[in-house]
């Protein structure tokens, strides 16, 4: 048995390897936060086998540990909550069993450069169907996965050089093997949006739409936090491409999953409704009707009232 540090974020644990871990909006960071209040290189973690130290790298909005803004490097304890921009992270420590091992092969898609598991068809990013015969030895790497808690020991290897930035999946490599397809696709979507690769993000969202349509169990793999996370990315794509279609899709997602959108999502829906000139209320009416049948808390009733008010906004859009 050995212990390892993790960062818990959005209900997922991301392993911290010994060394430096940069946090920020920049694609160069190891842990990327898509948050307007986060600096490009906001903070760093210094990780050893026995400690984790956090340091604010002269960020504009600061780093808070357990609600207190730090002015110098601070050693974190398991359970400490870190606030960067509007995002909350938590340091946790878990015991890891190192036992039976198996080999997993990753390949880099020659079409788009995204790393994926060998024999996973099609590519989760571009949808291209590939065969092993298409893969050159330089695109293949081997990793060892421990069949205990979700841990991957990976030998770093770069993808073939492209004319666009290559996505670095360092902080989601744990999920690449053990998470549901929905979570893996959501993380790739976040990466593509952060790199402003909007056409690829749009294509991936279309693929996610088909997966949900064809697989009745796809939505059951997603909890409320992750659904709201996915919807926030869909809203961004709807705004970029001026496509009102995605608002119908979003309303139907919440109906099918029987999940209530959070207030941040509802506020973003208001903005996108105006941006794309959305003027239909049928899907929204169905969502409101489904929520009225549920037993709601006071805060949930407030969200319902916000959705009801949204109808008036939509009806006033020409």
Supply the key terms:
318 residues, alpha+beta, 5-stranded mixed beta sheet, 8 helices, 24% strand
Give a verbal description of the structure.
With 318 residues, this protein is an alpha+beta fold. The protein is 35% helix and 24% strand. It has eight helices and 15 strands. A six-stranded antiparallel β-sheet has the order 2-1-11-10-7-8. Helix 2 packs parallel to helix 4 (224-241), helix 4 (224-241) packs parallel to helix 6 and helix 7 runs antiparallel to helix 8. The protein is globular. The termini are far apart.
What portion of the residues fall into strands of 2 or more residues? Answer: 15-25%
Radius of gyration: 21 Å
Net shape: globular
Give the helices and strands as they follow along the chain: EEEEEEEEEEEEEEEHHHHHHHH
* Strand segment tally: 15
Give the overall pLDDT as a whole number: 78
Total of helices: 8
Helix share of residues? 25-40%
- The secondary-structure class comes to alpha+beta
Largest sheet: 6 strands, antiparallel
What are the SSEs and their pairings?
Blueprint: E1 2-9, E2 12-15, E3 19-24, E4 31-32, E5 43-47, E6 52-56, E7 63-65, E8 68-69, E9 74-76, E10 81-84, E11 87-96, E12 101-108, E13 115-117, E14 140-147, E15 150-154, H1 173-178, H2 181-194, H3 198-214, H4 224-241, H5 245-257, H6 263-276, H7 282-292, H8 298-315
Parallel strand pairs: 3-4
Antiparallel strand pairs: 1-2, 1-11, 3-5, 5-6, 6-9, 7-8, 7-10, 10-11, 12-13, 12-14, 14-15
